[in-house]
Amino acid sequence: MKSLGGDALNTEPPFWSARPAQKEALKPVPGISAPAPPVNGAEHRPGIMAKAGYSSLSMKGSIWRKVLIQSMLREDSDVQDDFYREHGCRCESWTQLRYSCYRLVSRKWFEYLMGLIIVANALAVGYEIQLSLSHIADWMFWIDFTFVMIYLVELTIRFLAWGKKCFLDPWCILDMVLVALGVLSLFTNSVGVQVQELESLLVVRSFRLLRLMRALRLLKQFRTVWRLVSGLLTSANAMLSTLVLVILTLYIAACLGIEVITKDASLSQTEETAGIVSQYFGSLFMTLLTLSSFVTLDSVAPIYSPLITEKPSLTLYFFFIVLFVSVALMNLVTAVLVEGALANASADKELEKLDLREKLQNEMPRLLAVFGEIDRDGSGTLTMEEMSLVPIDIIPEELRAKSNISTMHDVFEMLDVDGGGELTREEFVDGLLNLFLHDVPATSVQTLRLLRSVDNKVNVLADQVRQLQYPGRGLHRRQISIVSSRSDSTDLHLGSA
């Protein structure tokens, strides 16, 4: 098998039947990608996309899109290859067991099944807590025992599949801790020892629901929920910084409040404000605790209204506290959390791969049908004349709405990068995927046209110079130049323009 940059060949035997030398060749070399597939006229080896009715694409897009196109028809042999790249060992009896576990945890339904078990366990924990207020039924012990055994089996399967990587995955570490607490709780209950602290700590078993949301994030209906959960999980630094800033601000305000409120003799001697000063501003700690209610504006009017009435200059003091802490700081924290959640959502590469996979699955068969309608002579290639005979409406409207292309002539010029005057089926399909599945600005389209025009003029000038230097040989060199330029043309990735 080639590395991620090339075509995955389904004609290769399973990895366990290959010779050791062949296995070494199958391993991808870090930092080195497979060579790009040949251009027009070159021989293509049959790839995974041949099952969809066409040969492997001469891909000009990103490595992600190449891998996604290959994985659209993912088979069991691909899982075997992934397992071999992970562990690099033969499929003997022990390795066969590990491969079976790896194959099991690679399925989506396994995550969803464990998610349902986690939900059932969370409901059982809540029901058990409710029963603990009156009495504890003996059968609840066996329910806990069943769930703990299921989690132990799950952890065993994941450890066999992933090996030492389990100790590097935060979710697996969380599962190990929770399962260890569950086993310890069952042991203490079985020997008749009740540990109240341990029982209270077992409530954190409900945190396994976060892993359920992580599995459900691949479904469109739950992506918003995952963004919220992910934003909370990744905003610990922002919340800690906010807490430090709030405490520092309130501490400074409390010190200032002692000077302007507690030490003010007129406020302490007035009947309406004396009780407020002694109750809410009697010490530095009480003043700090009172000002903390200004963070959420929790019924603070009865506190500052009598003080401002008696001493109007305190308006500035309370005004800056409300403005800085309640309004500015809290809204700033909200903005930081939202920005972090959006950044994490956009950086979730697995979701991007899933979205791109869905687009490819929806649009690729339609583009193949479009190619068949345009290629009326059945030659397997498209020319400018054939493209000009059909309207732009033949392209699906969903694709045309995402581009700045208005005519089929423009489409042909954009796809015919090497200037050969013909488009193969691979160039047509892959080029349209690049052109329409990515946002291509109009300025990029115009720039490419100008570069094409400049390239043609430079070639004409080069021919004229050669004819002056070598009379009678200019045409021959021009032909050599055309062949060389086609074979060495650089792939243009329109999506990154």
UniProtKB/TrEMBL annotation:
Transmembrane found in the keyword field: yes
SUPFAM superfamilies assigned to the protein according to its UniProt record, in alphabetical order: EF-hand (SSF47473), Voltage-gated potassium channels (SSF81324)
Domain EF-hand: 362-397, 403-438
Recorded GO CC terms: voltage-gated sodium channel complex
Molecular functions per Gene Ontology: calcium ion binding; voltage-gated sodium channel activity
Pfam families per record: EF-hand_5, Ion_trans
Subcellular location: Membrane
Residues annotated as transmembrane: 109-127, 139-161, 173-195, 240-261, 281-304, 316-338
Keywords (A to Z) from UniProt: Calcium, Membrane, Transmembrane, Transmembrane helix
Bilayer topology term: Multi-pass membrane protein
PANTHER family reported in the protein's UniProt record: SODIUM CHANNEL PROTEIN 60E (PTHR10037:SF62), VOLTAGE-GATED CATION CHANNEL CALCIUM AND SODIUM (PTHR10037)
This protein's name: Scn5a protein
Lineage of producing organism: Eukaryota, Sar, Alveolata, Dinophyceae, Suessiales
